[in-house]
Write a structure and sequence with these properties.
The complex is a heterodimer of chains A (about 110) and B (about 110).
Chain A: E1 4-7, E2 10-14, E3 19-25, E4 31-37, E5 43-50, E6 55-58, E7 61-66, E8 71-76, E9 85-92, E10 98-100, E11 104-109
Parallel strand pairs in A: 2-11
Antiparallel strand pairs in A: 1-3, 3-8, 4-5, 4-9, 6-7, 7-8, 9-10, 9-11
Chain B: E1 4-7, E2 10-13, E3 19-25, E4 31-37, E5 44-50, E6 53-56, E7 64-67, E8 73-78, E9 87-94, E10 103-104, E11 108-112
Parallel strand pairs in B: 2-11
Antiparallel strand pairs in B: 1-3, 3-8, 4-5, 4-9, 5-6, 7-8, 9-10, 9-11
The chains are: A mainly beta (about 110), B mainly beta (about 110).
Chain lengths: ~110, ~110
């Protein structure tokens, strides 16, 4: 079974609104990462949060991590049409394997 | 700019006809990965190389092979593609940093007729 699972599977919002995506996972992690994938393209790394961190910011992105609940959230503030993409959480538990969830498909309407 | 390049971007092959996808990187990263991603699904790791050390995932079909002739290049060979192998194939690289942030190429979309 997948380590990370995103919720919701799909999200449609108006430009300017905030978008929140959630990720739950099953086992202890070294870090959790969020990636973006535009349609038909490769993944782009957005942000990494370590297991001993609780919150991290990067531009309009805010990520939280709650290791007691084994969950993370990604907040995109003041969304733009260009933010339309799929967003994946990925958990890293060591070695060379990072496990990706199935993603949240975000659609931002102009 | 340092990057991960995949060729071709789109590949059409016939059922059972061998196909090779290529990946190159200018990041000089030790680790290279191949993922398979089907529509609306998570990328699934097929295998990775740490330098020349090859590591196959347990559930990767024998039909899939890989070669890494040097640091910069890595190939995915599908010996006898089936209809179920139609997917996006993603190549990625990472440093050996203990954090495993990965850098992806644009992917190759494989169609099997």
């Amino acid at each position: 079974s997948q380590q990370g699972e995103e919720d919701p599977q799909a999200l449609s919002i108006q430009e300017g609104e905030n978008a929140t995506m959630n990720c739950s996972y099953k086992t202890s992690i070294n870090n959790l990462q969020w990636y973006r994938q535009n349609s038909g393209r490769g993944l782009v790394h957005l942000i990494l949060i370590r297991s001993n961190e609780r919150e991290k910011h990067s531009g309009r992105l805010r990520v939280t991590l709650d290791t007691s609940k084994k969950s993370s959230s990604l907040l995109i503030t003041a969304s733009r049409a260009a933010d339309t993409a799929s967003y994946f959480c990925a958990t890293y538990t060591g070695g060379f394997k990072t496990i990706f969830g199935a993603g949240t498909r975000l659609f931002v309407k102009a | 700019d340092a990057m991960v390049i995949q060729n071709p971007r789109y590949q059409v092959t016939q059922f059972g006809k061998p196909v090779t996808l290529s990946c190159s990187q200018t990041l000089n990263h030790n680790v290279m990965y191949w993922y398979q991603q089907k529509s609306s699904q998570a990328p699934k790791l097929l295998f990775h190389y740490y330098d020349k050390d090859f590591n196959n995932e347990a559930d990767t079909p024998d039909n899939f092979q890989s070669r890494r002739p040097n640091t910069s290049f890595c190939f995915l060979d599908i010996r006898s593609p089936g209809l179920g192998d139609a997917a996006m194939y993603l190549c990625a690289t990472s440093r050996v940093s203990g954090e495993n942030e990965q850098f992806f190429g644009p992917g190759t979309r494989l169609t099997v007729l």
